[in-house]
User: Fold this.
Amino acid sequence: MRKIVAVKRVLYDAFGHFNDDDGWSMASHLAITALMALFPFLIFATTLASFLGAYAFADTAVHLVFDTWPEQIAEPIAQEVTNVLTVQRGDLLTYGAVLALFFASNGVEALRTSLNRAYRVVETRSFVFRRIQSLAFVIIATAGFLAISVLLVFAPILVRLAETNFEWIRPYFGTITLWRFVIASTVIVLGLFAVHFWLPAGSRRFRDIVPGILFTLIFWVAGSSAFAAYLDRFSSYVTTYAGLASIMVAVVFLYIVSLIFILGGELNAAISRYLEARARVVG
Assistant:
């Protein structure tokens, strides 16, 4: 009975603060900013990869980003993104690439603002520090994607060598598509931990952020599946928005993802507040 009461208090606190602190509007802001940041990030990352000689990066990056999206949402957008990224670019050190990096970092700043509100903390770090940190997040993500793309290029070769020398291991390898999905999922999990640890003001322990991340991952899967089922059976986006259907679907999908992401932070904050209050009563 006591646990049920505790769960109710935590959920009431989390959802109440989310509603009182304009969580619905913040999710819209985060969704649009994420969409605006996604394409500049991919363009900057692909340009940098091409400059370094990793010409297969574009296809790998598209898979890493969109393999975890429902197929109905990802397929039309991924194809257009691939078309854009495969255009030869020589502007790595020009204003175009700098602007792409800047717009991509705006997405990180939107995550920071959302989490600061969710964790109920006031930002005290300087604008310069925050912007440098955001740029560092984008560059580190680019480097990570580049490393993964290199691994995926060599993965089939390594698989063939392993199968030749160790036949017993063959059933455990699976397909490259499966590995792409596993790697993309791992990137998402590590990214969630990184943004919850370092983006918001203040400090948090590992155990303080685990509940919200688990909530986010579980409901991302549930929300994505439900939205995909809706698109399959009931949606009229194509007839309503015609050529804009794919972008409208992406915006709605990112809005759902953003809602869940912010609620994950709210849940962590509500649990921390409850534990602190209980500790004061016991003490």
About this structure: The radius of gyration is 21 Å. Residues 101 and 236 are 36 Å apart (CA to CA).
